[in-house]
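look at this stuff:

>
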Amino acid sequence: MNNNQFCVIMAGGVGSRFWPISRQHCPKQFLDVLGTGKSLLRATFERFSNIIPDSHIFVATNAAYKNMVLETIPEISESQVLCEPVGKNTAPCIAYAAMRIRSIDPTATMVVTPSDHLIINEHHFCEVIQQCFDFVDEKRDVLLTIGLQPTRPETGYGYIQVSKKVTDGKFNKVKTFTEKPNLELARVFVDSGEYFWNSGIFAWSVDAILEAFKEHQNETYELLDSISEHYGTPTEQEAVDRVYPECGGISVDYGIMERCSNVWVRCSDFGWSDLGTWGSIYQHSAKDENGNTLRTDTFSFDTENCIIKLPEGKIAVLEGLKDYIVVDTADVLMVCPRKAEQHIKRFVETVKFETGNKHV
């Protein structure tokens, strides 16, 4: 393991597309959504702890989830949990983490990852991450992202166009980024061989990413840089709480990556899925002979291709459903067509408004 390498796991989201099991009080990164016996956050930590010292792994999260992070990952210290007082998307989160790491080692390289990905070939994944570290260690002024070989014309992912056709295992300059295309355009992307899914996993030197913030998100850079003397001290949280709400809320993709000319991509294929929707969970879950994800205490008749999520011990009888999502919790029952799952965020907002319950 290299003492110059760090990892930041972003775990502050609410995961509203997984409502109603993912809620503000316990979002999806703390849930075992695939039935593996461990939460998504725990699986992410274990994946990176194979190549990075535990003491160099930080988790950026909402302040409300600090204790849940420490319970999930007892191997890290309280100081390794970077608490955002308010959600501001990924750019300020990454800038804060980079400045914190800079206070420890100004020559550091770092990888940034979401907390809710499925990686099937973890051995190959670790090899790719180490190659990314080696690349940014050699080319100190580049920003690197990981692109995944597309297996279908997926409309729920962003795409990265490379400067020329490449194969798995190659680094290349990024030509363009495209956010979530329609189906027709996604088919063109996949057929061209020039486009890769945007994984949202990044690697860079601390200097390179902070220089990019200084140029393209200067207000955020100045705000977080103004409290540099507090990083790693008992006054850090108070200082962060004071300036962080003033940072602009923008993703690192829009705020940094799409504006820089020094962006490279490592084209990869290690069995990846962004577990961001019920559809992605369905794709990777065990199914019965009718294509349903069911437990043994669910009885189905003339029911096909359904996602069923129920509390332990609850018996359900289903008849005549095709391509539906059925999710039951202690206080919410949701039944909707799988093709309408993009409306779930709207469902959440409507329920909150109509009931006056902001915690549903």
